[in-house]
Amino acid sequence: MIRELLLPTLAAASLAATTAAEAREIATERATIRVTEVASGLEHPWGFEFLPDGRIIVTERPGRVRLIAGDGTLSPPLAGVPRVRAQGQGGMLDVALDPDFAANARVWLCYSEPGDGGASTALGHGRLDRNALRDFTVVYGQQPKTSGNLHYGCRIVFDDGDHVFLALGDRFRRDQVQDLGNDFGKVIRLRRDGSVPADNPYVGRDGARPGIWSHGHRNIQGAAWHPERRELWTVEHGARGGDEINAPRAGLNYGWPVITYGRDYTFLRIGEGTAKPGMEQPLHYWDPSIAPSGMAFHIAPTLAIPAWRGNLFIGGLKEQRLSRLELDGQRIVHEERIDVAGNQRIRDVVMGPDGHLYVATDAPNGRVLRIEAAR
């Protein structure tokens, strides 16, 4: 999702007026930052975005979508959202604004959709009208549905054109990830009208799902469009170690579960090692795991912390830190981990329209926090 390009003046004014709890100042390697609470009282927030009028739209995993006003007030749950299977890791997950939101008021949601056979990840959109999503339409459903409540993936990213990417988890069916006849552990690429682009890599291939862009992923939990390199980046959970950053490209195989830098939860080796011809190496991996979550690039016309320009930020669930990654092209050359949330799980990271970073904490009383330069 092209979060870095939303720069309305109304948003900046609204965010500046936020009343919040006492800020914390933190000395990091390159800047002293201030962390301020924007909103609290959210039940396991999962994804959020800034509306052009300065409000924030946020999902809660149990199945709700809310709006956050400039003073931190939470709206009642929006009407018209789809029913979800809110069990385990499933529920109402990612949210994104259509690139043409100003004209069509379209909000995209990714969620665990119940149905015959269990549940699967689904993608759809509705029109935001006051406190409701009107005419919600399902655009894509992961196939097949399966039992279990793990590894839904579920991040939404738009490119510079008419395409939307849907990042999917393996639904804990790792033995089926290398099969192109299902959607387990895949990145899906569609047109925004829901049709499959003719230049997708497996269009016309017998036995392959035509929406597939890349495969061999385990459980993608963060994804973003690199605003300078103009390419998709993702971050996914390994098992015990082996969390990966990738830049998925058309038709490429990212290895799971044949190759991985992690081990099973029993400490046994998974697959055939860490490399194999025809399978891609990650841009970066963690061992031990940090359980990465949302991700955002700190690149925009307006930057609140210039020393962080070009850095990649990834939340940590297990690590409970914000990882700041310095890049040289696609190479990660340095990492700093910052406790911005007071030892709480960080679920999503967003580059705000005011140039500040924002994070959401995954907790029964979840919060949205703003990260800015200390004055």
Structure description:
Strands 1-2-24-23-22 form a five-stranded antiparallel β-sheet, with no helix packed on it. A four-stranded antiparallel β-sheet has the order 6-7-8-9. It contains two helices and 24 strands. About 50% of the residues are buried. The model is unreliable at about 1-20 (pLDDT under 50). The chain has helices at about 10-15, 100-105; strands spanning about 25, 30-40, 45-50, 55-60, 65-70, 90-95, 105-115, 120-130, 130-140, 155-160, 165-170, 185-190, 210-215, 220-225, 230-235, 245, 285, 290-295, 310-315, 320-330, 330-340, 345-350, 355-360, 365-375. The longest helix has 8 residues, at about 10-15. By secondary structure, it is mostly beta strands. The protein has one domain: TolB, C-terminal domain (Neuraminidase).
Topology:
Layout: H1 9-16, E1 24-27, E2 32-42, E3 45-50, E4 56-60, E5 64-68, E6 92-97, H2 101-104, E7 106-115, E8 118-129, E9 132-141, E10 153-158, E11 163-168, E12 186-191, E13 212-215, E14 219-226, E15 231-237, E16 243-246, E17 284-286, E18 292-297, E19 312-316, E20 322-328, E21 331-338, E22 346-351, E23 357-361, E24 366-373
Order of helices and strands: HEEEEEEHEEEEEEEEEEEEEEEEEE
Percentage of residues in helical conformation? under 10%
Helix/strand-derived category reads: mainly beta
Q: Quick one: overall form?
A: globular
Number of strands: 24
For the record, the CATH architecture stands as 6 Propeller
Distinct helical segment count: 2
Number of separate domains: 1
Computed Rg:
19 Å
Strand order of the largest sheet: 1-2-24-23-22
Average pLDDT works out at 93
Instruction: Give the CATH H-level superfamily.
Output: TolB, C-terminal domain
Q: Assign the CATH class.
A: Mainly Beta
- Unreliable spans: 1-20
The profile of the biggest β sheet is: 5 strands, antiparallel
Q: What is the terminal-to-terminal distance?
A: 30 Å
Would you give the CATH topology?
Answer: Neuraminidase
**Residue fraction in strands:** 35-45%
